[in-house]
Amino acid sequence: MIDSQNMCALVVMGVSGCGKSSVARAVSQRTGAYFIEGDAWHPDANIRKMSAAIPLDDDDRQGWLQRLGEETAHRVAAGTPVILACSALKHRYRELLRRAVSRLGFVYLDIAPAAATARVTHRPGHFMPATLIESQFHDLEPPSGEPRVLTLTATDPLNSLADQITAWWQLPDFDYPVCHK
Q1: pTM of the prediction?
Q2: What are phi and psi of 142, to 5 degrees?
Q3: Which of 39, 84, 86, 176 lies 20 to 30 Å from 66 when distance is taken between CA atoms?
């Protein structure tokens, strides 16, 4: 059994088009956890780059991930469980977030490239073009073997995904020595 005890926050992660935001929002509604939309925290330079179909690199993502970690830690320190929608594609990105918030859980929404591309192609009003999906899969380091990770199939129905995550995530009573540093 995966240790989901006392997780203070969850990151719903995966490539663009896997449904991170929709799933995280649904879990937030079920649990009352504070929802953080990672895309809303991208600096303008990152958005311009992605809008121009230029993949982000590690340097582009560094400050963005730090800000997300700080915001998540701030909410957790205030006694609020958090659910964050964030790609967290690489192991080192997830470690940066784990350093910000102890006992952080991750939900990896696994999706095939063709399905992700189809979803992004039909997603209106988002800055991330479908042409960048290949670069997302190139950067993706699945969280296999990492602690407190639940892997789900992204193409399963939204309600099923949210129900599985909610059942897995045993909301903490905010045992502060465990939940924040």
Answers
A1: 0.87
A2: -55, 145
A3: 176
Query: Please, how many CA atoms are within 13 Å of residue 152, restricted to the half-sphere of its CB?
Result: 24
The shares of helix, strand and coil residues in the chain, as percent rounded to the nearest 5, are 50, 15, 40
50's enclosing H/E stretch is helix 44-51
Please, which pLDDT band fits residue 1 given cuts at 50, 70 and 90? very low
Please choose, from the candidates 89, 104, 99, 96, the residue with its C-alpha nearest in 3D space to the C-alpha of residue 20.
Answer: 89
Largest CA distance in the chain: 45
CA atoms of 175 and 6, how far apart (whole Å): 8
In whole angstroms, what is the distance from residue 132 CA to residue 112 CA?
14
Over residues 122-168, the pLDDT tens digits come to 766 556 666 678 888 999 999 999 999 999 999 999 999 999 999 99
* Residues in the chain, total: 181
